[in-house]
Write a structure and sequence with these properties.
The chain is of the alpha/beta class and 396 residues long. The protein is 43% helix and 12% strand. The protein has 14 helices and twelve strands. Helix 7 links the parallel strand 3 and strand 4 (146-150). Helix 6 crosses helix 10 (268-282). The chain starts with 5 loop residues before the first helix and ends with a helix. The model has no long low-confidence stretch (mean pLDDT 97). It binds pyridoxal-5'-phosphate. Pyridoxal-5'-phosphate is lined by residues 43, 107-109, 133, 178, 182, 216, 218, 244, 246, 252, 257.
Length: 396
């Protein structure tokens, strides 16, 4: 009998609820026609990357020395690439970072893993605010850390500070913030971040070690009506930023992101070394060379994200008219209405029976809600409204 790591076997065997629904949607579409399936399961950007992405890739492929292009870059990413990214960040956030503050990664997923592995010793705790991206628990546990969940503030999806204080202890090494948020779509207000920063300062002092704030922000640019997303290093010095071009440039398959370790972070060089060491120990060195260069050249660009706002407005208005309770998203392409019964899995099952594929909130640490991914053609939303109406009628 092979003696494998059972935890890994389990992770590799169980498909996520989101993936299950997505696969179900494809099967159902073959049975009854794609136009009759309302798949809101997965967060795959539905708009193409800007033309500049392909143009830049084509230019690099035709102009650059292929030995250099297809060769290894530095483990932490090409220095010229990191300098261009630093320039872009500095222009937009009035900072003065250098290439030495950036570590290129295979998407935000690898950026987060590098942070958890680099910062945490076995048994350290990582605080997550519900609702949260489910993979955080997998990434944190993979680094030997223990996730501590702060229950959601279901009125506004900001932070329940009383619950947060209870979750803090000397064993807490890091706190993860994801704003704009998957799955609620909510953007944390500047006041929320300010309060968070004050509390973390006080607790770091009390415990005699820094509590790191990890800002996971793949949706930073996807915001509506000029919503401002606070730049967390401006509020709290021990902030590490995990960024990705998966959503803003519609490049999830190209797997490109970075960790930013600002110089203001206590022992910044040591923290950067820990991130680099984590990348090394995980085998994550040298993010793909071509797309490092493409993303650096396109760092100031975003896809045309206007459809997400159109979809948000249509869905929010329609769901509220039907009688659903929804907190208005400030960004992303998700919304997180209350399920019409407390058991969100039962509710999502009933939705599924109407070919409405929405994801139960319990997987995001927030039961009683469901996630709708509206990165879909607007006409899918229009066609789905009778199904949302019929579903609501079952509860009247
Ligand atoms: N963080 C959040 C909140 C996400 O929603 C996702 C992907 O959906 C990720 C991280 C992972 O992003 P990436 O594709 O860049 O690894």
């Amino acid at each position: 009998m092979t003696n494998l790591n059972e935890q890994m076997v389990a992770l590799g065997t169980q498909r996520s609820v989101i993936r299950e629904l997505f696969e179900f949607g494809k099967i159902r579409a073959a049975e009854i026609g794609a136009e009759n399936v309302f798949d809101f399961s997965i967060g795959n950007p539905s708009v193409p990357a800007p033309a500049k992405v392909n143009e830049t890739a084509a230019r690099i492929l035709s102009e650059m020395d292929p030995v250099l292009l297809h060769g290894y870059t530095s483990a932490q990413g090409d220095a010229g690439v990191r300098a261009l990214i630093a320039d872009s960040v500095n222009r937009r956030f009035h900072t003065s970072y250098q290439e030495t503050n950036f570590y290129m990664t295979v998407g935000a997923a690898a950026a987060l893993c590098c942070c958890f592995h680099g910062l945490c010793n076995a048994g350290d705790k990582v605080v997550l605010f519900a609702p949260y991206f489910p993979e955080y628990t997998v990434f944190a546990k993979g680094a030997g850390a223990q996730p501590v969940i702060v229950p959601a503030d279901t009125e506004a999806f900001q932070i329940d500070f009383a619950a947060f204080e209870q979750a803090l202890s000397p064993a807490v090494k890091a706190v993860v913030v994801n704003s704009p948020n998957n799955p609620s779509g909510v953007v944390y207000a500047a006041e929320t971040i300010q309060k968070l920063a004050c509390l973390l300062e006080a607790k770091s002092k009390e415990y005699g070690h820094p509590i790191y704030l990890i800002s996971d922000e793949p949706y930073r640019e996807i915001v509506f009506s000029g919503t401002k997303v606070p730049f967390l290093p401006d509020y709290y010095k021990n902030t590490l930023v995990c960024y990705s071009w998966s959503k803003s440039l519609s490049l999830p398959g190209e797997r490109m992101g970075y960790v930013l370790v600002p110089p203001a972070v206590e022992d910044s060089a040591q923290v950067y070394a820990a991130i680099a060491g984590a990348g090394r120990s995980l085998g994550y060195v040298n993010a793909p060379s071509l797309f490092q260069r493409v993303c650096a050249a396109c760092a100031d660009e975003t896809s045309d994200i206007s459809i997400y706002e159109t979809n948000k407005n249509l869905l929010l208005k329609s769901l509220r008219e039907i009688g659903y309770h929804v907190v208005e998203p400030g960004g992303t392409f998700y919304m997180f209405p209350r399920s019409l019964e407390q058991d969100d899995e039962a509710f999502a099952q009933r939705a599924k029976a109407r070919n409405l594929l929405i994801v139960p909130g319990c997987g995001f640490g927030c039961p009683g809600h469901v996630r709708i991914s509206y990165c879909v053609p607007t006409e899918r939303i229009e066609r789905s409204l009778p199904a949302f109406e019929a579903l609501a009628k079952e509860y009247r």
